[in-house]
Amino acid sequence: MCWLVAGCAAPASRxxxxxxxxxxxxxxxxxxxxxxVPLGEPLAVSVDFGGTVYVADGAxxxxxxxxxxxxxxIEFQRPTQQPGFFPADIKASGFFVYALDPDRRTxxxxxxxxxxxxxxxxxxxxxxxxxxxxxxxxxxxxxxIAVTDVASHQVMVFDSYxxxxxxxxxxxxxxxxxDSPRGVSFLPAGGLLVTDTGNRRVQLFDAGGKFSSxxxxxxxxxxxxxxxxxxxxxxxxxxxxADPGAGRVYVFSPDGALAxxxxxAEVMHFEPTDIDIDASNAIYVTDAANASVFVFK
Length: 297
Hints:
Elements: E1 22-25, E2 29-31, E3 33-34, E4 37-38, E5 42-47, E6 53-57, E7 62-66, E8 73-75, E9 89-93, E10 96-101, E11 106-111, E12 116-122, H1 123-126, E13 134-139, E14 145-149, E15 154-158, E16 164-168, E17 181-186, E18 192-196, E19 201-205, E20 211-215, E21 230-233, E22 239-243, E23 248-252, E24 258-264, E25 272-277, E26 283-287, E27 292-296
Parallel strand pairs: 1-24
Antiparallel strand pairs: 2-27, 3-4, 5-6, 6-7, 7-8, 9-10, 10-11, 11-12, 13-14, 14-15, 15-16, 17-18, 18-19, 19-20, 21-22, 22-23, 23-24, 25-26, 26-27
């Protein structure tokens, strides 16, 4: 799978599954349809503190929400200014839900009950003569927004007033450089976790954009990644990486060691496109191959 990125290289051969301890788990919950309508191409997932699950469904171009347990489900209002809406990433934060449309290079905002609000960032207006190709983003509790730019191989951070606070990265394989970074998430302590897809690694940075470390750790013989696209860290420092090319979610311990991989039991083909962790440390994974969201306890 090679999302929307011109010149994106074909994934390397899938690593042998025997090289990493695998945990074939039966999902605790499977979200596969909304009011009888099946998901098309689930690309991203976000869970808020109340337990509501938001899914960016790329094929029909829509956002779906399963409200906190027992409260039903809704389909979000389509943005009137963008009839060809293609949500590729999503984040619930506070009373808002944000969705990234990389085709139209916009970040849109909805309220958490499904009403469309506005285009928060138009990257064509922001770019001042250069093309920004946003592919992944995150929003922290202070309203800061981090965005990956796969065209320039950079990460941009905006403050709560949407002023550019930080831009870092350049093309290359060295620490702190990127090759088509596809995902970014804020760390619990305020730093950033960047999924460096083309270099088959995940990089960690402090709040000022200074390189800290990478996964797998330098010197590790085993690199299981084929096409890592999204990663998230839980409150205890464990890192979970969605790799659709490998068909696995890889889990790294707080010391950076590769602990194991996760895949749903009795599923022939698994294509995890995004991952999120809720307040109880349940793991939510969108799976494009099975058009579902798996929840692992």
